[in-house]
Amino acid sequence: MNDSNPFQTPESDVSPTPANTANTNNKTIVCNTVAALNGANWVIDGFRNFAINPFSWLLVVFLYLLMLGTLSILPFISIISTIIAPIFMAGLMIIAKENKYNSSFSINNLFDGFRLNGGKLAGLGAIYFGMIILLFMVLGIIALVVLFGNIENIESFADPSNFTPNTALIFLLFILIALAVMIPIIMAFWFAPALVIFHDIEIFDAIKLSFTGCIKNVLPYLIYSLVYIVVYFVAIIPVALLAIFLDSNDPNPIIIILMILTGLSIALILTATFFTSVFASYEDIFSTEP
């Protein structure tokens, strides 16, 4: 296993290349429909990518989560974390590419999005943030109309003891509406950072291509999701086994520390392999041609 210096300068050129423009010298991005079982291969390829430089991946993911987590808890500054998230996502895609093809790993690549295409990537984050705000505003208006249209609904939400089947149906409807809108938003931004950083296409072209790539590959993504659910359940088994030996009346601090360290390690591994699997799916779905 090769765990190279994460601070070394990568050898290959990862500067974005323009695509899908009127210039005949540029290449056209092709959005492919792949086989359903490719969704499982994305997860496998993600773990293979991680295995090349596992400790470097753990370090960069920890740094990424620490930075965004710190920004997220600060008042008003938390908005910035949403806007710059695509910039870091682009950096993670560059790292995944370099790691896969050159076995080189540079934490500095995490910040390459700022240097290579920061404006467009921040624009993606701003549009995503605006769409989420708009979604919550619409849901809020619907909630006000429904709740104030029936005093019983207000009483049910105010007092859980008055929770009725009708209230449960309304609550379920809100969730379904939110999912129905949120899923397309996620699809529209899933591949957008990678498309911008690797092909330098315009923001709305990236959003459109990302949505198209997801919608044309619903079955692979269903398999991908199911496989990851299984992986997550298997991953929590070590923590669950440690919990069995934990006495609630007299908790052993050593077991508690082991549970925390094990849980943190598993969380970092799953987060890292999520990013590498996203890169694997991007490579599988999108290709270029003259």
Tally the helices: 11
Termini separation comes to 37 Å
Tell me the helix content: over 70%
Overall spatial form: globular
The strand order across the widest sheet is 1-2
Radius of gyration, in angstroms, nearest whole number: 22 Å
Please summarize the sheet with the most strands.
2 strands, antiparallel
The stretches of 5 or more residues where confidence is low (pLDDT under 50) are 9-25
What does the average pLDDT come to?
83
What's the number of extended β-strand segments? 2
Domain tally: 1
Write up what this structure looks like:
This protein is mainly alpha-helical and 290 residues long. The protein has one domain (28-289). Helix content is 73%, strand content 3%. The protein has a two-stranded antiparallel sheet. It is globular, with a radius of gyration of 22 Å. It starts with 27 loop residues before the first strand and ends with a strand. Residues 9-25 have low confidence and may be disordered.
How are the elements arranged and paired?
Elements lengths: L27 E4 L6 H15 L1 H20 L4 H25 L9 H37 L2 H8 L6 H26 L1 H8 L3 H13 L2 H18 L1 H8 L8 H33 E4 L1
Antiparallel strand pairs: 1-2
